[in-house]
Design brief:
Oligomer: heterodimer
Protein name (chain A): Transmembrane protein
CATH topology of the largest domain in chain A: Immunoglobulin-like
Pfam families (chain A): Alph_Pro_TM
Organism (chain A): Maritalea myrionectae
Number of domains of chain B: 1
Strand content of chain A: 35-45%
InterPro entries (chain A): CHP02186-rel_TM
Shape of chain A: flat
Helix content of chain A: 25-40%
Distance between the termini of chain A: 53 Å
Number of helices of chain A: 6
Structural class of chain B: mainly alpha
Low-confidence stretches of chain B: none
Keywords (chain A): Membrane, Signal, Transmembrane, Transmembrane helix
Order of helices and strands of chain B: EEHHHHHEEHHHHHE
Radius of gyration of chain A: 23 Å
Chain lengths: 252, 311
């Protein structure tokens, strides 16, 4: 929150100076995960400036804003359990490449009031829009598996849609708060802000931010990856020491 | 208070984790088993991904077996030669188990095999233990005082196999094949299912090899300790799913809980303890059976195949 003032100042400073219509920023360039991390909220601010040469008084300010926040992409596989030999086991499955691990859509109005579904889909402003659904092998069940995958991600709190999440503080200045759950994946996030007017996309601006472990947690996660043998040995030594210490303390 | 687990990449309540470790530690102190077979499923049921649960519990089992193994070592209750044979074969089994673990994980059948494995092993061991304990309790009721259980004969067909080796401490002269087979099976199952395997190893040593009762627990603890230590390192290298924060939280709870378990165990008779343990083992088996047999509330599941580009 201490960034708030700085961000606001920066926004107005750059906003008036440039010809760009949309200027936005996030409250935190890095979301830190430490030992007591239980989720976090980031705030996205932006301002929509009228085009140069136009009289601000004549501008009709019926702007709508949609912000999409996408986490690092990976290959996800959706599996369906089927009954075989009397027991339930994973049968059919479909893999999807480049699937966002986190996807949040916040808007200033219901999505269907902002623009036509095709317009939104072209910009990737729907969970199942083409840029996000890249099956490794397309089958007749691909669409069903894609929908189920999205449903499961929503259930886990990693995909969300908030149609009243963007608030206009003035005619041109907006802010949105996005909640990141405790099990948010680490990595690089892309917040993309889209401005619509009369059902048409008039501008968009991307902004990156990082979600990553810091301090001890970062050290542990990196050690497990980069020095896996040493990490395993340290785990064993720690376990033997704990067991030995308990034997000494409790005199078994 | 939430504690962030850096490998599992999620937060869980610290007191819940220590309490879980403590409860399992209490039972392991009470029954003299590692408790991995209870802890791994409980972690999976509380939302930790199965690969992380299995790999981290192996670390916890190392801690749980160390204090026990040390106290048997001081009393001379370990057959080092027998333990060495079991450990060498067990490590080979563990290699195979960790490799299978990785293969099943990428094939999407790890959860199924873990469930089936628990169902088969806990179900059969639990049933056998319950029958044995019930017989013993009935005998105790009828005769007032149970005679010491006598093993039928000193030799069985296993003792007729070739390539015999003498284990002085255990007073055994037995073929190495059953020894290697038992060691390797425990290593394989332990690394695949995240259990120490003490509750399988002890009956196998007693009933198949006729290892004397005074030696069997200490030797089994040493084998479990060595195999689980090797498995922890193998999991750390192969699947990178050992969560040291999770493992340490669990082992802290369990070593404390174990002390209370040991004191509580002194108020119960051996056959009663075994009957109780058998019921708990069977309950876990039934829980797995239900998850396999009942129509799942959600037939769909999601898994991530590649590691995300972490920052």
């Amino acid at each position: 929150m201490r960034y708030l003032l700085a961000v606001l100042l920066l926004l107005f400073a750059t906003g008036t100076a440039s010809a760009q219509r949309l200027v936005m920023s996030t409250s935190e360039p890095v979301v830190s995960i430490s030992s007591n991390f239980a989720g976090d909220t980031i705030t996205i601010f932006g301002t929509i400036e009228p085009e140069l040469g136009r009289n601000p008084d004549q501008v009709t300010n019926n702007y709508n804003v949609v912000i999409s926040i996408k986490g690092p992409a990976g290959t996800y596989v959706a599996r369906k359990k089927t009954r075989q030999f009397g027991i339930w086991l994973n049968g059919e499955q479909e893999a999807f490449e480049g699937f966002p691990s986190y996807f949040s859509l916040v808007s200033s109005a219901p999505m269907d009031k902002i623009a036509e579904p095709q317009v939104l889909s072209v910009s990737g402003l729907a969970f199942d829009s083409t840029p996000h659904i890249r099956p490794v092998r397309r089958t007749q069940n691909t669409d069903m598996f894609a929908q189920e995958l999205i449903r499961l991600m929503k259930k886990r709190g990693l995909y969300s849609l908030d149609e009243h999440g963007v608030q206009f503080l003035s005619d041109t200045f907006f802010s949105a708060r996005i909640a990141l759950p405790a099990h948010v994946p680490n990595g690089s996030y892309l917040a993309n802000t889209y401005v619509f007017q009369d059902g048409k996309l008039i501008d968009n601006a991307p902004q990156r931010f990082m979600v990553r472990t810091v301090g001890f947690e970062r050290f542990v996660a990196n050690s497990a990856k980069d020095y896996s043998l040493l990490y395993g040995v340290v785990c064993v030594i720690l376990a033997i020491f704990t067991g030995w210490l308990s034997g000494v303390v409790f005199r078994r | 208070m939430q504690l962030y687990l850096p490998i599992a990449e999620l937060s869980l309540n610290l007191f819940m984790l220590v309490g879980l470790g403590g409860a399992v530690g209490f039972l392991s102190g009470l029954f003299g088993v590692g408790g991995g077979f209870l802890l791994t499923p409980m972690l999976i049921f509380s939302g930790i991904p199965a690969p992380v649960a299995v790999a981290s519990v192996t670390g916890q089992v190392v801690a749980a077996s160390t204090s026990g193994a040390l106290s048997y070592w001081r009393r001379g209750g370990i057959d080092l030669k027998l333990a060495l044979f079991l450990i060498v074969s067990g490590v080979c089994g563990a290699f195979l188990g960790v490799w299978t673990f990785g293969q099943l994980r990428s094939a999407g059948q790890l959860d199924l095999v873990i469930s089936l494995g628990y169902l088969v092993f806990l179900g059969s061991i639990g049933t056998l233990m319950l029958i044995e304990a019930a017989r013993s309790i009935i005998k105790h009721r009828q005769q007032g005082n149970a005679p010491p259980t006598k093993l039928p004969g000193k030799h069985n067909w296993i003792h007729g196999l070739p390539m015999r080796v003498r284990f002085k401490r255990s007073n055994l002269y037995v073929s190495i094949f059953p020894v290697i087979l038992i060691g390797a099976s425990i290593g394989f199952l332990g690394s695949l299912l995240g259990i120490g395997g003490g509750f399988i190893l002890v009956p196998a040593l007693i009933y198949l090899l006729r290892v004397p009762g005074s030696i069997v627990i200490g030797t089994s603890l040493l084998q479990v300790l060595a195999i689980m230590a090797a498995t922890t390192i193998l999991h750390a290298i192969n699947s990178q799913t050992v969560d040291i924060v999770l493992a340490f939280t669990l082992m802290t709870g369990s070593v404390i809980g174990a002390q209370f378990g040991v004191s509580a165990g002194q108020y119960l008779r051996g056959d009663q303890l075994r009957a109780l343990l058998a019921i708990i083992v069977l309950a876990v088996a039934v829980r797995f059976a239900l998850s396999l047999l009942l129509t799942p509330s959600d037939p769909f599941s999601v898994a991530i195949l590649t590691n995300l580009g972490g920052g």
